[in-house]
Amino acid sequence: MNKRALVTGGSAGLGAALVAELLAEGLEVISIDRDQPAGETPGLHHLQADLSNISALRELLAALVDGDPFEVVVLNAGISAVGAFEEIDPKQLDKVLAVNLLAPMELTRLLVTKQMVAKGGSLIFVGSLSNRLGYPGAAVYAATKQGLESFAASLRKTGAYRVLLVLPGPLDTEHARRYAPLGSKGRKRQSPSVLARRVVSRRHRPGTVYGTVAQALVGLLGIAAPSLMTSLMRRGLFTKLRAAPSITDERT
């Protein structure tokens, strides 16, 4: 039996780094992404799809039913919309909601009902440190990631699968640079390869993975002292994001 993994958003950023780590572990990987990766990689198969189209997901997964169940499923794909909440086109907000929350929920439901997750397999959900802090200037993004965290926590309670939640802070990716405040240099952003290595090594143990120890502490402070963390982050991030021109992912 071939050990298989499924990764959404596997063509770039953290998704591509996770794909590389899973391939290095000897798994055959299927990546679902709207963008075609450059070149061909042994063991990697790509399905091109727009994950904002929730009604098309059943047909998308039909092509995977004949293979072995997945040992690892990584729900990683995500988009954002930055700017003052009231100024963002509602259609773009709907797409953020669909890609970040509705698609992973529906994909999980379809995979489970079609018995496409191996017994004792791992479900890995990529959330965000914004779950702990709130995110003025990217409110819908934060809301979808909080919803994803709650969904993952509920699945973990069933004990049927190993459920791992990943809460990255700022990563050194094109996506992060696109939505960062104007003038942000990104010197403190984490390498996606480093985080991917940690996630894949933890795939057999349920729980939560933060990007770094410092980010874990920030996340805990966001819960224990939300007013303090909001005050500290308002000038450096929140005010800049809210004042910035709206940025949306119009390709989806």
Q: Order of strands across the widest beta sheet?
A: 3-2-1-4-6-7-8
- Count of domain modules: 1
Question: Which stretches are low in confidence, meaning pLDDT under 50 for 5 or more residues running?
Answer: none
State the CATH architecture.
3-Layer(aba) Sandwich
Shape assignment: globular
Fraction of residues in β-strands = 15-25%
Structural class comes to: alpha/beta
What number is the mean pLDDT? 84
The tally of helices reads 9
The succession of helices and strands, N to C, reads: EHEEHEEHEHHEHHEHHE
> CATH H level: which superfamily?
NAD(P)-binding Rossmann-like Domain
In the CATH scheme, what's the topology name?
Rossmann fold
Keywords: Membrane, Oxidoreductase, Transmembrane, Transmembrane helix
Transmembrane segments: 209-232
GO molecular function, one term: oxidoreductase activity, acting on the CH-OH group of donors, NAD or NADP as acceptor
InterPro entries: NAD(P)-bd_dom_sf, Sc_DH/Rdtase_CS, SDR_fam
Structural commentary:
- With 252 residues, the chain is an alpha/beta fold.
- It has a single domain, classed as 3-Layer(aba) Sandwich (Rossmann fold), CATH 3.40.50.720.
- Helix content is 44%, strand content 18%.
- The protein has a seven-stranded parallel sheet with strand order 3-2-1-4-6-7-8, sandwiched between helices. It has a two-stranded antiparallel ribbon with strand order 5-9.
- Strand 1 (4-8), helix 1 (13-24) and strand 2 form a beta-alpha-beta unit.
- The longest helix is centred in the middle third of the chain and has 24 residues, at 90-113.
- One of its GO terms (molecular function) is oxidoreductase activity, acting on the CH-OH group of donors, NAD or NADP as acceptor.
- Belongs to the short-chain dehydrogenases/reductases (SDR) family.
